[in-house]
Design a protein that fits this description.
Rossmann fold, 10 helices, 220 residues, single chain, globular, 11% strand, alpha/beta
């Protein structure tokens, strides 16, 4: 009887650990790709580091939007702030950037039981990790965008954006980029022509809005 119970406990713990490891390493392929790129040619120090989720991943021509700025793009699609924190040693700390630009949080909010307070807590954790290693660089956050496919989460996104904006206002050498309201029409709804067919990711029209909003915040 005792042997059976021990076996059941061991099986449960094994499954739990395996699931946790799988979740933690869900993006290991993307991270390994970044590492391979760095091994081949390390990006120059003092660049501007873009880090976050798929809105950066799909911005494959981001350097063309900001030709006067050296950009490193380390966005990996589907990531949450928790994932960016997990991989900070790989996608943030090696680069010695002059500025870190973050777009993340949207994917956090669509998970069960995750609200604006959790997003703010995760962002502040990420912020402190960056500040610990790079106390003097500029940290910029791009607001969560109003994707039509995620209209049910707009209230939470607005609250999350407001919380992060206030948090940054209390910190030195930071900025907050409001793309959220720039992507709405006169009726307060997301402009459909700036999104791809999935109503989640942006097309070139959306990225042009981002370019105009972000560029004044970038360091020369």
């Amino acid at each position: 009887m005792h042997t059976t119970i021990k076996l059941l406990i061991c099986c449960f713990l094994s499954i739990t650990i395996t699931r946790g490891t799988a979740q933690s390493h869900a993006f290991s392929k993307a991270i390994q790709t970044f590492k391979a790129q760095d091994d081949k040619q390390m990006p120059p120090k003092n660049s501007i580091l873009f880090v976050g989720s798929s809105s950066f991943t799909k911005w494959t021509d981001v350097q063309q939007y900001f030709p006067s700025y050296p950009i490193i793009n380390r966005g990996f699609g589907g990531s949450t702030l928790k994932d960016v924190i997990y991989y900070a040693d790989d996608i943030i700390l090696p680069y010695h950037p002059r500025q870190v630009v973050i777009y993340c949080g949207e994917n956090d909010l669509v998970l069960p039981n995750i609200g604006a307070d959790v997003v703010l807590d995760r962002f502040s954790t990420l912020f402190e990790i960056i500040r610990k290693h790079y106390p003097d660089i500029k940290i910029t956050y791009i607001s969560m965008k109003p994707s039509p496919s995620r209209k049910n989460f707009r209230t939470a996104m607005e609250a999350g954006n407001a919380g992060i904006q206030y948090f940054l206002s209390q910190q030195k050498n930071t900025s907050y980029v409001d793309v959220y309201h720039n992507m709405l029409n006169e009726k307060g709804a997301p402009m459909p022509h700036i999104f791809m067919a999935d109503s989640l990711h942006m097309n070139a029209n959306g990225y042009k809005i981002w370019q105009k909003a972000i560029e004044p915040h970038l360091l020369k």
